[in-house]
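Exercise 7. Predict the structure of AMP-binding protein from Thalassococcus lentus.
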Amino acid sequence: MLRRSSSYEALRTRFDWDLPDDLNMAHQTCDGWAATDPDRTAIIDLTSGHRRDVSFGTLYQLSRRVEAGLVARGVMRGDRVGVLLSQGPLCAAAHIAAWRLGAISVPLFKLFQRDALASRLGDSGAKVVVTDDEGKGMLRPFDCAVLTQKDLPDAAMATRAAVGTGPEDAAVLIYTSGTTGKPKGALHGHRVLTGHLPGVEMSHDFLGQPGDVLWTPADWAWIGGLFDVLMPGLALGIPVVAARADKFSPDFADWVIATGSVRNVFFPPTALRMLKAADTRLEGLRSVASGGEPLGAEMLAWGREALGVTINEFYGQTECNMVASSCGSLFDPEPGCLGRSVPGFTVAVIDEDGQLTDQEGDIAVRRGAASMMLEYWRNPKATAEKYRKGWLLTGDRGIMEEGGFVRFVGRDDDVISSAGYRIGPAEIEDCLLTHPAVATVGVVGKPDPLRGEIVKAYVVLKARSEVPEQELQDWVKQRLASYSYPREIAFLDALPMTVTGKVIRKALKARAAAEGGNS
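Solution. The predicted structure, encoded as tokens:
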């Protein structure tokens, strides 16, 4: 765990990675606790509508039963094991069982349609998929073995240690969301969990305080749910809440927090905006972390007032996660910034030659960080293209500010070039979100014969709200640069979103390009 320090500088100076030659995430997340403190609560299971506390000893036995089922289906070291499950003890046990065997787990999302499942199952070559009855039905079109809880042997595997693995041995294959192209499989080693821990602890103001209980509405099929919450919580011995809802709502969040005694939450930005739009107040929280999109000053101010905490924004991606973060107990956040480098990571802004720059450039992470992928699965060309002279390229553009804060400008392909100005959509989105009538917004560049591109905003209004286009344009003009206001605004009922809750700007850009017209 991070040693609490009096300053950010001291925190970084005192930090050192601990990556032993013998490292297996099954031991980190389950076996070690089951051996030393089996009655300790691992998961607070709310999936049935009432609370059931699952101990590490119980989780261990469940994972051993899954392991027996996998062995019976011929799973060996290096085989891929799909996990098509929502939040719940079986989801955790399936990953743990695969890692204990030296297999590679492949998280899969229940909302995937047939083509999305087919691409991931086909590319990974999954030998077995651990799922439930619903997932079994989804998998009928595919030629893969299925293991449900009903299929598990009554008896666990005979007691034995996890197979010998080290930090660089493959453990989990997580597919990107595919917002900028075909989803690629980021292959991670057993060091990936250790790599996440300092950022998770930092984003929750030193997670691991007495009484801490961790929850996220993000599905455990995504790196944000699996490695920002579930597995770090288990590794640190902090109870993790499992809860399911067909759709996130403020009432659901309030119920989970109260019933599960939650004190620490990772809320994706979309969830925070829904809470704000509903004027929700949540009590009893010690920390709230968020990541995926910059929140802006208005959202941070709302968090202090409505949630009673400073929302700590963190930054990362499937290929290398939890690399930068805020930490309200150490320093004030900078609105629009991604935070500062997490101890053990070097996050920088580099130019086309791979050199540090104080101008706008590519946000990058120094190669060698513990949460960095081993490679893109069976894709050496894409792996090579991801790096530039010792730096992993995130695909985001930013500016390095004083104190090591990284200001987010936008995705490399999202930056708008208008009349010679380079305009980041995030700042405009943040500004529009401060308008009391706006629920959510996506900003893109629309082709324009005079300016090259113009700024176009797609806005979803709050229920029973109306606002003229000119009022929103003036709202931005009065708060940002005069050249960056949206020259066109369209009002939609909903924005295209990824399954992880991010606006799909690619879809909005295609829509804008197809609209034509003059500005």
